[in-house]
Each structure stands twice: as structure tokens, then as C-alpha cells.
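Ligand-bound model needed. iron/sulfur cluster.
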Amino acid sequence: MPWIDKDGCVGCGICVEECPVDAISMENGKAEMEMGKCIHCGTCHEVCPQEAVRHDGEKIPDEVKVNVKRTKEFMSACVKYLGDSKEGLKCLNRMTKYFNKQKTVAEKTLEELEKLKSDSK
Ligand code: SF4
Ligand code: SF4
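Prediction:
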């Protein structure tokens, strides 16, 4: 998913003009994407003169940090509300299962997308 680096965006409006599905608008002088409309064509990446349209992969370190932080919060809450220090580890195991499931969904999806690539040749 593309995203706008607000610090880099100078509000030139080129991406707004070029987006084929009107998924970008200007708000307070900065480009704003409506992800529900975006068809992932990549045009905004190509036309932005400031390289302010960034790639999703750049958010991976931040997303990992958020996941770890949330897991720690859940662990603390389980210990607090269930009143047993063992609940922290049980919670951690459940979160591990959750992220393993997400991983499996991503892997299986990628397998299907590879098949689509072969079918599209
Ligand atoms: S093209 Fe780049 S700099 Fe111009 S409005 Fe869009 S994101 Fe901002
Ligand atoms: S990727 Fe394409 S559809 Fe999505 S916001 Fe950019 S130009 Fe619009």
C-alpha cells in the first residue's frame, strides 16, 4: 500500500491530477490518500517529484515495534486482570499463534498470487 510522507509532500497536486481513480485529494496543503479507492497502480509513486509517495515495506520496522508493544500490553493486562503471573506467558503463546496464523495467511496468499502470475503470462 502506498502512503504519503507528509514531511516530504510539498502540495504540488501532481499526484491528485494523475491518480486515475481520484483516490488522492489535498488536505491542508498535503496529499491525502483514500485507500478504499486505491487500485495500487503505482502512478503516484512515479509522478511525485519529491519522492513523498513511499512504499509500504518502509513501515515494516515500525509495524513490528507496534506489534511487540501491543503484545507486552496484552501480557501485562492478562496478569493484572486474571491475577496470576503465569497468564503472561499464556498470553504470549496466544499472540505467537496469532502472528503465525497471519504469516500462514500471507504465505498461502503469495502462493496463490504466484499462480496468478503464471496464468497471466
Ligand atoms: S506529487 Fe508528491 S509532493 Fe506533489 S502533492 Fe503528491 S505527494 Fe505531495
Ligand atoms: S497507487 Fe494509483 S490508484 Fe492508488 S493512490 Fe496512487 S495513483 Fe491513485
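The chain has two domains: 3-54, 60-120.
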